Amino acid sequence: MAMTISREQVLEQVRTVMVDALGVDDNEVKPEATLMGDLGAESIDFLDIVFRLEKTFGIKIPREELFPAETLMNNPEFVSNGKLTEKGLNELKAKMPHTDISEFAKNPDIGKLPDLFTVGMIVNFVESRLKAA
Amino acid sequence: MKEQKMLENLRLMTTIAAIMRFILIDKVVEIETGRRIKAVKGVTLAEEYLADHFPTFPVLPGVLLLEGLIESASWLVRTTENFAHSMILLEEARNVKYKSFLAPGAQIEYTVEAKTIEENVSSFSGTGVSNGEQIVEARFGLRHFNLADKDSTMAAVDAKIIGEMKKRWELLKK
Fold first, then answer.
1. CA Rg, chain B, in Å?
2. For the domain that residue B71 is a member of, what is the CATH number?
3. Which sequence spans correspond to the domains of chain A?
4. B123 vs chain A: nearest CA distance in angstroms?
């Protein structure tokens, strides 16, 4: 089922998801907005966001595919001294092919991981899923 | 009918017990009646919820950071209205932002400024800072009431809760 939906349309629908899931205003949901720092999403919200994205776009998002943080945070091979290990970085790269993590990789401080989760990243992810469908 | 009432009360009691069990601030360090309050919380590895959040990287869950702001504001309300109401609940939270993680060993200082404190509603803006770093910020509104407002048979429960809160205040205030 090929879907010819523009990036602008995807952004519009992702915006609605964020407004519904996080209770933020439309105009706060900019592409560069980070989910945690700008929009106030926290652990519980990520599940809600995934569920709403699945419903909105008719796609399936296996757990941990969109927000791999939990797998990373639960495995001592991936995190050491508050930073991602080599293994951890590889895992992150594999789990988030739709995001450029090269800047983050220079100093993979786990406290900075949330900065990767922007609205734009979600749009990238949805677009790539729709193309593959 | 009587059974329904008993079930309702049971649910209410469980909620109240849960609320009273939460203590997400350790000490109130500054207070300006009606206007502003500052409180601190130290994070310890012994906090049970940290075991799962997350095993390799324990950090205070976002909702509990927000809870710290809400509790701080609640004490400002209680001292300002002289413990008039037993129930002080979150009505609304806006523009909540989680800027940085807070880990065991750190101490967070919450600063909450009241925008308005009226008889049954109040609104605030608050921030949490640790070691010079912004951790959390939010704007939120509370509502305050007594159970007896709706059901006069609950006046004794109100009195009990208020009594407990007064005792807790003795521990929290500086």
1. 17
2. 3.10.129.10
3. 1-61+117-133, 68-114
4. 17
Tell me the whole-structure pTM to 2 decimals.
0.83
For residue A70, list chain B residues with Cβ-Cβ distance below 8 A: 54
* Per-residue model confidence as pLDDT tens digits over B18-76: 777 789 999 999 999 999 999 999 999 999 999 988 888 899 999 999 999 999 999 99
> Going by C-beta distance under 8 Å and a sequence separation of 6 or more, which residues neighbour residue A129?
A57, A59, A61
ipTM, two decimals, is: 0.70
Residues of B with catalytic annotation? 53
Distance (Å, whole) CA B125 – CA B138: 6
| CATH T-level fold of A1-61+117-133 | 1.10.1200
Helices within chain B (DSSP H only) = 2-21, 62-80, 155-172
Contacts of B56 in chain A (CB under 8 A): 73-76, 78-79
Contact of A73 with chain B, judged by CB distance below 8 Å, is answered with yes
Task: Provide the domain limits for residue B106.
Answer: 2-172
User: Using the beta-carbon criterion (under 8 Å), do B54 and A73 form an inter-chain contact?
Assistant: yes
- Give A17-75 pLDDT, tens digit per residue: 999 999 899 999 999 999 999 999 988 888 899 999 999 999 998 877 888 777 787 78
- When scoring B49, B96, B130 by the number of chain A Cβ atoms within 10 A, the one with the most, hence best to mutate, is B96
Which among B109, B66, B130 is positioned nearest to A36, based on CA atoms?
B66
